[in-house]
Write a structure and sequence with these properties.
heterodimer, A: 267 residues, mainly alpha, 11 helices, globular, B: 254 residues, disordered C terminus
Chain lengths: 267, 254
């Protein structure tokens, strides 16, 4: 194929303009095709109760206005938001401490790294021993899932502050606290946002997994219960909700990074 | 000066680990046995499961599940990502959906898998696979987007064939990104493994944790959790090593 002409040259790994159709149309057609494929595969191969697009569309509006579903969504998302808030505040504090004080870094590093690497699912039985089968246990799992990714990223961020910034702060006799707030914090924002994104994803997984395990009202339990009673279409609405929250948060972080931190491209 | 600093550093690390061990031991003696077990009891339990062969059996079981799912995810995600790297229209059509699936908490699909596929080995592999495949795919596609069109044009100007184009441009440029994906997949796959062992049929290390908690054998449970923590740390280091090894790859500008 050494004689490949110049014709296919554009459009390879190039800009979206390279294709004849507009990207939007392309994406829409692809999405539609995927849905049709899903519908057909399920109709052909799977039993009637399995979720498929037409079934989900049929039950969607009644589920989304169902008080029980809304309560479940509120419970899960509330727990995620609270756990995330606690993790972001405490995690940033611990991370900054580790990033700026060598003693703290050396003392805590092994604990933070190992707990960061631990799948939060593994500690579920332990958490239920401590807190019982209730919402507190879910909250603990969410914090465990989110906290360490915030710490790791805040620590990296605090360490990545250019030394010149700190020297200038020192030259102006800034107090340690104002150095931290006015220099270290803004300089490590890209890292903090990356940590927040990671933490949010993990917190969501933590909440759902905890609800599976503990069986308390929430989106995870809602979809577990409905899938067990073979109402897969209803259960899938909960999945859509979770995807929307996950993607929404991801988009929010991307937007914040682009809008306020255009100088940092850190993926 | 540097030497002194290093010595202080190691002293701090040693002190913190020793303190942690003591705290673990003391906490075990102060609380009721159902809440926490002393370090000594946990280690004794660890030695016991290691000696009786339970650890080896359950560990192999877990690793078999994990590696099957992870390798399948890489075997599917990497070539598919590469294909999307080469065929621009396909990439544009699918990248938003891949991003969406990447951000989806895959645990949400576990109840469906359970009720459709039941308890065998296959559904569990599917769980690990689903946890691991989208990071590989998503990051490889991200890498594909980073390839400058000029590079491909230059390759064409020099009459590169399809194979040469892949060898000299596509693969070197997407590989570092793919390795980032594999690092994420290594971590997510481990979560998938424990999820599968908890919520589908109990097996492996997950089953050891569950049995410990059901029999109020807190030391046994902590021993199993400890193994998973070690596994997690080891795998994370492996993932970082892989990523750094290929981040220095030619043509990669971070």
């Amino acid at each position: 194929m050494s004689g490949a002409s110049a014709a296919p040259l554009r459009g390879r790994a190039g800009s979206p303009r390279a294709t004849p159709v507009s990207p939007f149309v392309l994406k829409a057609v692809a999405g539609l095709l995927l849905l049709v494929l899903w519908e057909f595969v399920v109709r052909m191969l799977a039993p009637g109760y399995v979720a498929r697009p037409s079934g989900i569309a049929r039950v969607f509006s009644s589920v989304i206005t169902d008080a029980q579903f809304l309560a479940a969504a509120g419970a899960t998302l509330g727990a995620v938001a609270q756990g995330l808030a606690v993790s972001l505040l405490a995690g940033t504090a611990v991370g900054f401490l580790m990033g700026r004080a060598a003693v703290a870094e050396h003392g805590l590093r092994y604990y933070v790294n190992s707990l960061f690497a631990t799948p939060m699912v593994a500690i579920l039985p332990l958490v239920t021993l401590w807190f019982g089968y209730n919402a507190d246990a879910r909250f603990a799992v969410v914090v465990f899932a989110a906290f360490f990714s915030v710490v790791v990223n805040a620590c990296d961020g605090a360490r990545s502050v250019p030394p010149e910034y700190l020297e200038v702060a020192q030259a102006f006799r800034a107090r340690p606290l104002s150095t931290l707030i006015d220099v270290v914090f803004p300089a490590s924002l890209p890292y903090l946002l990356a940590g927040a994104r990671l933490a949010a994803g993990r917190a969501l997984i933590g909440a759902v997994v905890a609800e599976f395990f503990i069986s308390i009202p929430g989106l995870g339990y809602y979809l577990l219960y409905n899938s067990r009673t073979f109402k897969h279409n209803e259960a899938f609405v909960a999945v859509i909700m979770l995807v929307a929250v996950g993607v929404g948060f991801e988009a929010l972080i991307n937007w914040l990074t682009k809008r306020y931190l255009p100088w940092s491209r850190r993926d | 000066m540097q030497q002194q600093k290093n010595r202080l550093r190691y002293a701090t690390i040693a002190a913190s680990l020793a303190l942690g061990a003591v705290a673990w031991e003391v906490a075990g003696h102060l609380t009721s046995g159902a809440f926490w077990a002393p370090l000594s009891a946990t280690l004794r339990s660890l030695v016991e499961v290691a000696r009786s062969g339970v650890l080896l059996k359950q560990g192999t079981n877990s690793l078999e599940l994990y590696l099957t799912g992870l390798l399948l995810a890489i075997a599917v995600g990497a070539p598919l990502g590469m294909l999307l790297a080469r065929v621009a229209w396909l990439r544009i059509a699918l990248e938003d959906y891949i991003m969406m699936l990447y951000a989806t908490p895959m645990v949400a699909l576990v109840p469906f898998i359970l009720s459709m596929l039941g308890f065998g080995f296959v559904p569990k592999v599917l769980v690990v696979f689903l946890f691991a495949v989208f990071p590989v795919l998503y990051n490889t596609v991200e890498g594909a987007r980073s390839i400058k069109p000029e590079l491909v044009e230059v390759a064409h100007s020099f009459r590169s064939g399809e194979w040469q184009l892949w060898r000299d441009v596509m693969i070197p440029y997407t590989l570092p990104f793919m390795m980032t994906g594999i690092r994420q997949a290594i971590a997510r796959g481990l979560v998938g493994m424990v999820v599968a062992e908890f919520f589908l049929s109990p097996s492996g290390l997950g089953q050891m944790i569950m049995m410990g908690s059901q029999n109020f054998d807190t030391a046994g449970m902590l021993a199993a959790i400890f193994i998973i923590v070690l596994l997690g740390v080891g795998l994370m280091d492996l993932g970082r090593y892989l990523e750094n090894r290929f981040a220095a790859w030619k043509g990669y500008n971070p």
